[in-house]
Every structure is written in structure tokens, then in C-alpha cells.
Design goal:
alpha+beta; 21% helix; seven-stranded antiparallel sheet; Arc Repressor Mutant, subunit A; Umud Fragment, subunit A; elongated; 2 domains; homodimer; two-stranded antiparallel sheet; DNA-binding
Chain lengths: 202, 202
Amino acid sequence: MEKLTERQREALEFVARMIEERGYPPSVRELCEEMGISSTRGALRHLEALERKGYISRASGARALRLEERERYSKAYLPILGEVPAGPLRYVFEEAEEWISVPANWGKEGRFILRVRGDSMIGDHIQEGDLVVVDPQLSGNQGEIVVALVGEEATVKRLYRKGNEAELRASNPAYPPIPLKEGGEEVRLLGRVVALLREKVI
Amino acid sequence: MEKLTERQREALEFVARMIEERGYPPSVRELCEEMGISSTRGALRHLEALERKGYISRASGARALRLEERERYSKAYLPILGEVPAGPLRYVFEEAEEWISVPANWGKEGRFILRVRGDSMIGDHIQEGDLVVVDPQLSGNQGEIVVALVGEEATVKRLYRKGNEAELRASNPAYPPIPLKEGGEEVRLLGRVVALLREKVI
DNA sequence: TTGACAGGTAAACATTTGTTTACTATTATA
DNA sequence: TATAATAGTAAACAAATGTTTACCTGTCAA
């Protein structure tokens, strides 16, 4: 895809923002005002360039603009992480293969989704295959359901504290608690489970 | 939500389709042509009605139409029914007060969402407050989790058949099975539970 | 140095588009 | 039956909008 100049990118972002937030595209004169251009000719040139380079398509008529590469990101989309995020959480999103739409108010900055493996949290009615929405947090409160990286594996557990000590407890008694910040394996808290999706109820 | 007349619904569907497929809203005259109306006044009346009833919002300017939030991405929005649908399921949608976005592939025609009350399906890890997505069906297969109207109350249960007889079973042994099509209360099948949302994991 | 290109100003123009006025017919409803 | 709401026709009008012409200013690579 042919590269855009800085001004052209500004124009594209404005068009995309208006469609996303307002629901319909801007007029040429609205684009003028946004970009501080006094003549419609200047703004029209940007639209022509965007069309020529394949970023938008235009038809005759008012506001007849359409984004070609539909990058209308919705805040209600979250990534499903196939691999457990090993590096900094910042790069999680670029590696995500699958995205899923969720109720709009679930979609906060930085959140992601993990698929639950195993039945260690069956006591809290979180079963194998469920998708849990994770809100990234470096620490957790007493009793919260969290996602932690134990060794190289992500696991969903409840967090319990006792003085300076803390541990992760399954709600299935078949699994032993995992001590936090103790001599054992390295444990890193990824975040808190805030919601859940079950794709197939059988 | 106030009901639409048939013509108003036609108009709304055209507006939504143009935004969805073409990327920007239709002009009044395009709406005229679509609906076979010779005067712009006639089409404008429909838009005014849609705005008054809260289905769209309008601003000054060409094609300045926007679908209200619940109408956007219509395929991925489902209504949460506060009251149990007593009448024909067809009218369920116009009475719904609350709508929620769901993963796009969950949003099939006619589906709706019910909030689970009680713990009768706790054995299947469906707990109080969970939102179940219901696919309307008049009959169900052996062992499926269904929603049925027992008397005036909607209930989530598993459907079991034995020859000509059938019954609804809770997965919590504390609840007795409910016979279907027997001398007891009238039971009507609303549909099958296909997915689940848990808004708050505590 | 020159030419291509992005970016811009200014003004006029053509068209689309929304809005309004006035009047008629149909349908649902109290 | 009376009344309101809905639906429509026709025509004119005002505003918004896209398009075009003509000319200017930089930047950058051949």
C-alpha cells in the first residue's frame, strides 16, 4: 500500500474518526476546518490522494466517502491470546491472531482474553474452554480471581494474602495452592479476571 | 422502545443497510427512490418519525444520519429481556429495554438474552446472574440445555425424553424434575441455550 | 537548474441535499 | 363518528456540498 504523507494521514485519520464516532463521513469543508485549510481545493487534494492511493473510495454526492481498508477499530474488541504473554504485556496486542467482540463496556484499555485450560476453578463455575476477560494489574486484592504466569504457563486462581505471604488457590480442592514470591517457581501476576464468555453451552 | 410502523421499519432497514454496505448514509432522495415515494416530504416524514422514536439521530447537513447505538452492528447486538416473553417471540425485540453487544457470530436472527435466576443449573456451571443467549426453538434434543416457560416463569433446564414423555431437569439435585406435556402446569419451550456471558467475576 | 509533486489560496460555479409550505388520502383509535 | 396519526404529492426555496479554474510556494531528485 502506497505510503501517505503526514498531511494525508491526518486527513485519513480525521475521516476515520468522524465515521467511527459520529456515524457519517465529513464534508470537504469540515475537513478544511479540521486541518486549518482555508480553501476547499486544498482539502479536496488530500481526498483525491487518499483515493488514488487506495485508502478511501469516493462516489458522487455529499459525504460520499468510504474507508477502503476497514480499520474501524471498536473499543468493544479484545484479543484472544493463543500463547501466554511471556514478554511485556505491551506487545501482547500485536501478536494476537484472533479478536472477538464483547459487550461494549468490557472493552477497556489493555484488556485481553485467555482461554481457560483445565478445571482448577470449577468451584467458581469457570470451566474448561471458557474465555476469561483479563484486566491487567500488577497486584491483586484478597480473594480476587486473577491470572498469573507460573513458570511459563498462565493459570487462573484466587489470590490470598497472609501478612507478607501470599498464595494462589484453585477452587477445585484437587489442586494444591501455589505459593507466591517464595522459593518455588517464579510467579508473575498478569491481571484480574473481570468477565467471562462461554462460546458453547452443551 | 416505541414501535415502528411497517414503512418506518423499511426506512430504518434501508438506512442501516446503506451504512453497513456502502459506508455512508443515504440522502433523503435516495430514500425516496428506494421506497417508491415521489416527494421528498414523504421520506423526510419517515426520518423524522425514526428520530422521534429514538432509532436514529439527525444533525444539520447532508446525509447527517446516525443509527442509535443499539442499532449499530445489528448482527452483534442482542436484547436482554427483563420480562419473560409471554406473547409471540416475534415482538420480543421492540419491548426490550436493554441491549448488549456480543461476539459477532453469536448474533443470529431472533436470539435473545435472559438473566439466570437461582442456582438450579449450578451443576453445569451456570450461576445466578449469568446471561444466557437463547436461540429460539420450538423443540429440543435429548440432553440440551433449554429455556422454558413454566407457568409464567422462564427457567433454564436440561431437556430429557423417554419415549413419549419428556421432562426438564435441573443440574442441581435440590430441584425436582418438571414433567413436560403432562397434567401439571403448562410448559412452553422458548429455545436452546447456546452461549453465556458473566458480567462480573468476583 | 529544472521539472514533478505536495500543499495551499481565492473565487466562482453547478449540483446535491435538506427544509418548508400547502393540500389530499388513508388508517387507526378513542 | 370524530380525531389524530400516518403517508403521500407537488413545488419552491435555502443551505450545504462537491467541483473547477487560475495562480502561488515550497521541496526534492534528476
